[in-house]
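Recall that a protein's primary structure is simply its ordered list of amino acids. Everything else, from secondary elements to tertiary packing, is in principle encoded there. The following example makes that idea concrete.
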Amino acid sequence: MQPGEEAVVEGVPVEAAESAQSESVETIQREMTVFARRARASAGRLHPELSLVSYTLLGHLEESGGCRATDLAAHHALDKSTVSRQVAALERTGLIERRQDPEDHRVQLLHLTGAGRRILAQVTESRREAFRERLAQWPEADLERFARYLVRYNEWQGPTPINTHPTPPPP
């Protein structure tokens, strides 16, 4: 490259491509924030005692067939104390219960109660209906593309953490 020339990739100056990408990332960040804010607000409207976090915890318990509180924390990347508070509240309202793990009697597994299943089904259907209503005018191709992008976005596990305390080799 000669002095004064712009770097070009696929016919687009690199600086312009980086600026467009930066703008796109900023738009995505802003819109995802709005989306999260709306999701939290709508969760309270769909069922006043069921926060968005509680809804996701109930959903995971249904999908997994029951698990430990520490499994919930790990799955949702939440602090154990946050999950502990949510679990206590869900137990008080009768939406979940603790049962002894049949494989390890020292472990307590969390399970949905009948009331928990009914509330989860009701809120899930209300959420689906709200999405259907909001997306009713979208062409099918846009819906499919949007769904694929969301799956792709949510599948990313993040950078691999660097182990600053490596396990010593076995003796």
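The chain has a mean pLDDT of 84. The first helix runs from residue 14 to 46.
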